[in-house]
Design brief:
Order of helices and strands: HHHHEHHHHEHHHHH
Number of strands: 2
Largest sheet: 2 strands, parallel
Distance between the termini: 19 Å
Structural class: mainly alpha
Number of helices: 13
Number of domains: 1
Shape: globular
Length: about 270
């Protein structure tokens, strides 16, 4: 560990943290301003899953035709319309969508600032992992974002937007409700895909081991099913689609935990 880190007082740490937070916030705001200006592109992406010719619907439609199954995904248009019922509704949606776009796009830089804050308290060999940590964590996060956007969001929108208790009721979805579905789907998946990184740090702290993860695999599966039920519409197909990649991530995390422990054992032997 560095002497500078040892000599820093508590107030110095707070001051350093404040500047990391300021720089992260500035990065988010810069991207948010650009997203605000180019709203047509941003909202074209958000409204993508509402279109009947969206990539996911076309994929499932062709898959259904392959097995001679009449798929609901072959509809040319989803049976609902979007509406705004408040004076400031569209402006508010514009503002918050821009901010969340800033958070998502700036995620790698936010990780970089976080690493810069904690790295002085780490050993030299641990600090060398900085670039790898940021790249892997960012790849996992954006993979989750794409998974949420191309699978979870359209499945949710198609199911909920088409669901009807009676022909007397028309689906006129509020703009904020629609955006909330898209936002929660992509961000939830982005965070869930960070599981291997979380397990890595928990293993480094000694809180998680491969035997522990194998022992409680059944409990983990139950938790995964609950998470899948929360972030997907209430149909079995959607839950299976979400459960499979999370299970794969869990199994990957066991190997990561095993790798970390082996590496730590080798380091201890070398030091001895």
């Amino acid at each position: 560990m560095t002497n500078q880190k040892d000599e820093m007082s508590f107030l110095d740490h707070l001051e350093e943290l404040r500047w990391h937070l300021i720089r992260s916030t500035m990065a988010v705001l810069i991207v948010a301003v650009l997203a605000f200006i180019y709203k047509d592109y941003v909202f074209a992406i958000i409204f993508g899953p509402k279109q009947g010719d969206f990539f996911t619907y076309q994929m499932f439609c062709k898959l259904g035709q392959l097995f001679d199954y009449e798929s609901v995904f072959c509809a040319q248009e989803l049976p609902f319309t979007l509406q705004n019922r408040t004076m400031a509704g569209q402006f508010s949606a514009h503002i918050w969508t821009s901010i969340w776009t800033g958070v998502i796009v700036s995620f790698p830089y936010i990780l970089y600032e976080l690493w810069k804050f904690i790295s002085p308290g780490l050993y030299e060999n641990e600090r060398k992992l900085a670039s790898g940590f940021i790249i892997i964590a960012s790849v996992l996060f954006f993979s989750g974002i794409l998974f949420g956007y191309y699978l979870i969001a359209p499945l949710s929108i198609n199911f909920l937007g088409s669901y009807s208790v009676s022909d007397e009721v028309q689906n006129q979805i509020d703009l904020s409700s629609y955006i909330s579905i898209v936002r929660s789907s992509v961000i939830a998946c982005g965070l869930v895909f960070e599981l291997p990184i979380i397990v890595y740090f928990l293993t480094k702290l000694g809180l998680v081991t491969p035997p522990f993860m194998r022992k409680y695999r059944r409990h983990a599966i139950v938790v995964i099913l609950i998470i899948s039920a929360i972030i997907t519409p209430p149909d079995v197909t959607s839950q299976i689609i979400v459960t499979i990649p999370i299970l794969i991530l869990y199994e990957m995390s066991i190997f990561i935990s095993k790798y970390v422990l082996k590496k730590d054992e080798k380091s201890k032997k070398i030091n001895l």
